[in-house]
Design goal:
mainly alpha; 6 helices
Length: 152
């Protein structure tokens, strides 16, 4: 329960940051994709510049996650399905002008068209599940399975 409350607070804060940068606005995303607007690229670069060293440091300290496992960053090499998935995500992003987190911000700010984007996201996830016919565990097939049981 405590982790859910913390997650909710971080989610609200993240949504506020996305909204303050207008990342839930279709025009902002399309201006970025047309290379007319570089503010979004700077936002993404700053997120990477802050999070990457912090994650490397936490991994070096052998930090445990709230789920009980040790934090280990992915060491896999890019494969064909990564490129295909990235291209499909990019096409969807260009058409809809949003991705999952900004779509939620759209809905919470009253832009109900975000529900259409969310429906498309969930439809895509369902289609992937049907295609892959994966078992009911969480994992991407390349890395270890993730145990979602929270230890008290």
């Amino acid at each position: 329960m405590k982790l859910n409350a913390i997650g909710l607070l971080f989610g609200i804060g993240f949504g506020g940051v996305l909204a303050s940068f207008d990342l839930h606005e279709y025009d902002t995303i399309h201006a970025m994709l047309r290379l007319d607007e570089f503010r979004v690229y700077f936002f993404m670069a700053s997120a990477i510049a802050v999070s990457a060293p912090l994650l490397w440091w936490l991994e070096a300290r052998k930090t445990n996650t709230p789920f009980g496992g040790q934090l280990r960053l992915s060491q896999s090499k890019p494969q064909k399905h990564h490129v295909q998935g990235g291209a499909l995500f990019g096409v969807g992003w260009a058409i809809a002008g949003t991705c999952p987190a900004p779509a939620l911000v759209m809905v919470s700010s009253g832009a109900w068209l975000g529900l259409v984007a969310m429906a498309g996201i969930f439809l895509g996830l369902q289609l992937r599940e049907m295609q892959q016919a994966t078992p009911d565990h969480v994992g991407d097939g390349e890395h270890r399975e993730i145990n979602l049981e929270v230890k008290a």
